[in-house]
Specification:
binds 2-acetamido-2-deoxy-beta-D-glucopyranose, leucine-rich repeat, eleven-stranded mixed sheet, mainly beta, 6% helix, repeat, PGIP, 2 helices, Leucine-rich repeat, LRR (right-handed beta-alpha superhelix), 331 residues
Length: 331
């Protein structure tokens, strides 16, 4: 126990305090000014110039160039705003500021200078303001996660111009307005789109039907229109979650991709029947079509494939006149 305590008290115990530092002085001073921008006296004990900054908590460097390319901070001990001095880490590729409850203010414009950024995560913080338009200047961005913050305003359509963007997660914010029509021109390979738990409204752009999404979760918004654009037999999508919106379209016309694993369309105004073609989605493990306006006989056989007991009736209940197992027999 004592040893453990010692270890916890001196988390930098295993670092080498040698004179030979690989870290570039510019990077080190950028990191120190990041640290000093917070009101806390000493948030990261290892962030001390007696150690090589490539060994500091949350910092990673390229093995060849020794430039700082990654900064990954999780801290309930930081209090302040995202410092604009971050942009002095000119070679940064991966930036994650995660679970920092006392991180406030807006995403600073100077982040647009981090032209090598590929992976940007600012999540589970109290950051406010918009999803900035200037993120569209980060041409190498592949992964953008701004989930669980207090961002408001609409989604900038310019983000669709990012050529490599493969994952967008803006879930659990206070975003309003529509999903940009331009998202139908995303060019990243099999993008994932996660916009759940916001206040988005307006119709689903038909252009989104052009995209081979790997997964889509736009649940718990106030979106309307025809969400059948996400479906289609040729696609490789494994998750489609569109529950708790205002979608109104004919389910009978939908064709399901074989790759589908999770499908939740509950709490909408979807009508028609459940087409027998859904049995071609042989990997389907989670299904929920409850609280819609569906009618007709539930296809048989398929729902027993992965779950011995079948899906329970809560996957199907509260529709207009669905019938058959696991609901009441059709008349
Ligand atoms: C490190 O830098 C070298 C030289 O620029 C580059 O070839 C290599 O891909 C980089 N490695 C990583 C992990 O970024
Ligand atoms: C954060 O810092 C501000 C100003 O320094 C202070 O007013 C506030 O109480 C601090 N909040 C927390 C949670 O430490
Ligand atoms: C935002 O701040 C509030 C109040 O200090 C806190 O309860 C909440 O957990 C914070 N949010 C996040 C995502 O950390
Ligand atoms: C949701 O959108 C509909 C229009 O599609 C609108 O009539 C309704 O007021 C909106 N509800 C909320 C809570 O914003
Ligand atoms: C989706 O991607 C798969 C796998 O690359 C490809 O076979 C299929 O044609 C694509 N479908 C569409 C609609 O782009
Ligand atoms: C389906 O969704 C409804 C409504 O949200 C929920 O009550 C039910 O438990 C869900 N059933 C399954 C199997 O997920
Ligand atoms: C769903 O199943 C439960 C338990 O088997 C049953 O009590 C309930 O009445 C069923 N509800 C409907 C709508 O079929």
């Amino acid at each position: 126990m004592l040893l453990l305590l010692l270890f916890l008290t001196f988390p930098y115990y295993n670092l080498s305090a040698s004179d030979h530092h690989l870290c570039h002085p510019d990077d080190q001073s950028a990191l120190l000014s990041f640290k000093h921008s917070f009101s806390n006296p000493n948030p990261f004990p290892t962030w001390d110039p007696i150690f090589d900054c490539c060994d500091w908590y949350g910092v990673s460097c390229n093995d060849t160039t020794n430039y700082v390319i990654g900064l990954d901070i999780i801290s309930d001990n930081l209090n302040g705003t995202i410092p604009s001095s971050l942009s002095n880490l000119k070679h940064l590729q991966n930036l994650r500021l995660h679970k920092i409850p006392n991180l406030f203010g807006q995403i600073p414009q100077t982040l647009a200078k981090l032209s090598h950024l590929r992976y940007l995560v600012i999540s589970w913080t109290n950051v406010t303001g918009p999803v900035p338009d200037f993120l569209a200047q980060l041409k190498n961005l592949a992964y953008l996660d701004l989930s669980f913050n207090r961002l408001s305003g609409s989604i900038p359509s310019s983000l669709a111009t990012l050529p490599l963007l493969r994952a967008i997660d803006f879930s659990r914010n206070e975003l309003t307005g529509p999903i940009p029509e331009s998202f139908g021109r995303l060019t990243g390979e099999f993008p994932a789109l996660v916009l759940s738990h916001n206040k988005l409204s307006g119709e689903i752009p038909t252009s989104l039907g052009n995209i081979n999404f790997s997964s889509v979760d736009i649940s718990r918004n106030n979106l309307s229109g025809d969400a059948s654009v996400f479906f289609g037999t040729g696609k490789i999508t494994n998750t489609i979650v569109i529950s708790r919106n205002n979608f109104e379209f004919e389910f009978s016309r939908v064709r399901f991709m074989e790759s589908l694993d999770v499908l939740d369309v509950s709490h909408n105004k979807i009508y028609g029947n459940i087409p027998v073609q859904i049995t071609e989605a042989v990997y389907l493990q989670q299904l929920n079509v409850s609280y819609n306006r569906l009618c007709g006989k539930i296809p048989t056989g398929w729902h027993l494939r992965y779950n011995k007991d079948g899906w329970d009736n809560s996957s199907f209940f509260h529709n207009r006149c669905l019938c058959g197992i696991p609901l009441d027999p059709c008349k």
